[in-house]
Amino acid sequence: MLSDITFGQYYPASSFVHKMDARIKLLLLIAYIVLVFVVKNFYGFLVVYGVLLFLTLLAKVPITSLIKSASAVVFIIIFTFILNIFFYKTNNPTYLFWIITKEALEFSTFMALRLLALVFFSMLLNLTTTPVALTDGIESLLKPLKVIKFPVHELALVMSIALRFIPILMSEADRIIMAQKARGADFESGNLLKRAKAMLPVLIPLLISSFRRAEELGDAMDSRCYSSSSKRTKFRKLKAGWRDLVAVIFTAIIFTAVILLNNYVGGLV
Q: 10 Å Cβ neighbour count for 191?
């Protein structure tokens, strides 16, 4: 069911990661994304996934939540894996089966691990940071752009609303699918075209519900005299602490370890 997808959902807990500053978590996410692309061998990925497991346990987030998050992109990962197997070219290939080479298999696995790591780190941020704190962090980091009249607050507001609506719309779509199944609708049999046509009775009510919720939200904001042009205060102000310093130092150590592995072991890419 769509409700099993964890994108846009916050997992409440009292942990080291949850109590970190949202701005630092956003910057560290960017750092770990860079780290995933810096990795050049499978030993580096052992370090990356070891860090991911450590952070997941430290955040007290169920590992199943991260695994469910990968279900949304599993098709993209499999598709990329297959394309790399058949189209990756190298000098002096070692054939394992038919046109599949050892080098292509290693490269495809490497790319799949890279994509999974990107998804897992992004979802870990999503599960440990509330949408309000996340958008406040983005607004704070982009504040220098106000000098060139960039609508930072409006962008943060749109992102906050979008993050809040994602789990709501998934739950709504799941409810509509269950209602259609109760009326005899079949979403699982037939070819791809037939399945796509079967989704039309779901998409139309979902669009209507989305527009209705957007209109209600707009009316609620107007009734409360909301204006993005006025100077707004915040109930909770973001403040970096000792946890953020520890996380930055830990990330620097991991970066150093991966770079050393790249230099002394070599790499595939």
A: 7
Could you give the CA distance from residue 56 to residue 49 in angstroms, rounded to a whole number?
A: 10
The answer to whether residue 59 sits within a structural domain is: yes
Below-50 pLDDT ranges, the chain? 1-2
106 part of a folded domain: yes
- Long-range contacts, stretch 174-182, CB < 8 angstroms, 24+ apart: 174/1, 174/2, 174/3, 176/201, 176/202, 176/205, 176/206, 177/1, 177/2, 177/202
d(CA 71, CA 57) in angstroms, rounded, equals: 21
The structural domain count of the chain equals 1
Give pLDDT, residue 211: 87
pLDDT of residue 228: 66
**Amino acid, single-letter form, for residue 169:** L
Q: Contact 137/238 with Cβ under 8 angstroms? A: yes
pLDDT for 5: 54
What's residue 33's pLDDT?
Answer: 92
For residue 105, give its domain range.
1-132+244-269
Using a cut of 0.85, tell me whether the model's pTM lies above it.
Answer: no
Residue 263 lies in a domain: yes
